[in-house]
Amino acid sequence: QVQLVESGGGLVQAGGSLRLSCAASGRTFSNYIMGWFRQAPGKERDFVAAISRSGDKTTYTDSVKGRFTISRDNAKNTVFLHMNSLKPEDTAVYYCAAHDAGSSWYLSPRGSDYDYWGQGTQVIVSS
């Protein structure tokens, strides 16, 4: 089992920045591919970004490329999502998730591939 706890959400004006954190406990954090997803009101949960076990590979959905950066600190069992140039359409509940991918290096954008989820943190971007 892996427990994930997100923090760092809040209310920010358009153009502002936030840093989300996700603290993991339980099994060895560095064994997991980590991802961030988001769900806006009335919409499905969408992929945002993912990062490899060592942190050397990342992938992003097109709408956040150049604005968001995913990173991780395996010594602190934490994954981050740095969000810059925020837009009202970034408003959502943001979730981190852990994927036990075995020997695969593939950074999946499919939520169904992830094994553990946090409770989410709300991000509201005002115009």
Give the percentage of residues in beta strands.
Answer: over 45%
The total count of strands amounts to: 11
First-residue to last-residue Cα separation? 40 Å
Report on the biggest sheet. 7 strands, mixed
Average pLDDT figure: 96
Shape verdict: globular
Structural class: mainly beta
Name the poorly predicted regions. Answer: none
- Rg, nearest Å: 14 Å
Q: Write the H/E string, N to C.
A: EEEEEEEEEEE
What's the tally of helices? 0
Q: What's the helical proportion of residues?
A: under 10%
Structure report:
β7 and β8 form a beta hairpin. The chain is mainly beta and 127 residues long. The protein has strands spanning 2-7, 10-13, 18-26, 33-39, 45-51, 58-60, 68-73, 78-83, 92-99, 116-117, 121-126. The protein contains no helices and eleven strands. The mean pLDDT is 96. Strands 2, 4, 5, 6, 9, 10 and 11 form a seven-stranded mixed β-sheet that branches. It is globular, with a radius of gyration of 14 Å.
